[in-house]
Amino acid sequence: MLSSKVIGDSHGQDSSYFLGWQEYEKNPFHETFNPSGIVQMGLAENQLSFDLIETWLEEHPEVLGLKKNEESVFRQLALFQDYHGLPAFKDAMAKFMGKIRENKVKFDTNKMVLTAGSTSANESLMFCLANPGDAFLIPAPYYPGFDRDLKWRTGVEIVPIHCVSSNGYKITEYALEDAYERARELNLNVKGVLITNPSNPLGTSTTREELDLLLTFTSTKKIHMVSDEIYSGTVFDSPEFTSVLEVAKDKNMDLDEKIHVVYSLSKDLGLPGFRVGLIYSNNEKVVSAATKMSSFGLISSQTQHLLANLLSDERFTTNYLEENKKRLRERKDRLVSGLKEAGIGCLKSNAGLFCWVDLRHLLSSNTFEAEHSLWTKIVCEVGLNISPGSSCHCDEPGWFRVCFANMSDQTMEVAMDRVKGFVENNTRGKQKRTMWDTRRRSLINKWVSKLSSVTCESER
Fold it and tell me: Which intervals hold domain Aminotransferase class I/classII large (predicted)?
């Protein structure tokens, strides 16, 4: 006999978000060896600025050689087991996070818990803040992985805060209250609100007004506010990034024990394989419990050593953040212009590694069945793995998340050519069907007219 977790399907990985990855892995695109394969546009990785990090590593070989002041630190790192983390690394992370926020927020390393990526950070927070069967409210559309990360092992439920395209998916008081009441009707105990800022999948930063509304709402309801800010360093256009901690400070809530932040280097530095994340909280009990939990998923000491050196280089971090934002903006503009040439629009965005793309005009009907059919065709026939809005719990069929920072310029061109070809073929197909429908209606009308004439004559 196996556990219910093993034999159940509550892991959330039967979503089309993950199924698209599986199709890609069967037939991955390669410019030389498999040019007809599937292009991965469903993975939010930042590969645009690797060369900046690689250049730094080449200039600092002693770091990879595990040396400090020309002396080996191998034994020290090999034996280091303190799950509080290397002090030098935590100091460097605190300064880097402050730099992204233009030092409007200061970070205390004593309120920091290191985790093996933001997935671990978010799950640990759920274990700390909620019991099985309790609920968190999350603005939808939201990252599909949350159905796994937040729910699977913790038993926590997610209630979507329904946001709509007509107002750019802004979080409103009505949407918050509606989600809260729906949770209560389901007899769910609401423990908090969790947002991603900037938003995954929308690629938009949460406005100061929305953050003010959220803090007022959570404070009034006496529930927790969790802000996942792993894309904070990717904001490449106005409005600028505003952390929930900055707004909390303005509202004299900066020491509130119910406000928590998640951060990671997976997106801003493009290092998901390094598994570097953290929780930041004013709540001593949360910090203490989460620190104990972190023993199940620590950041390796050599990773901490390397990144402590990298992030302590002010010249590097300043140049990296500026150049990375520039490259992200250019790549995003390239995707948007390419889609526009094909007659496809996007939600206006200013951050992240993806665009929220509007394909509603390509649906055969305004249903999620039609969205799934279109998605299947795009993945299997066009050869592009993109994420359908339904996997992000979007209420409106026809929206898709399309990632743009995980590929070369040449691969992006291939993807855009395929999109244009698909739209042109789809349009021609519709025109042919329209012509046939018109001709068929004409023939039917003639037939009915002739039949009516015969009938009338016989009746006379």
Answer: 40-419
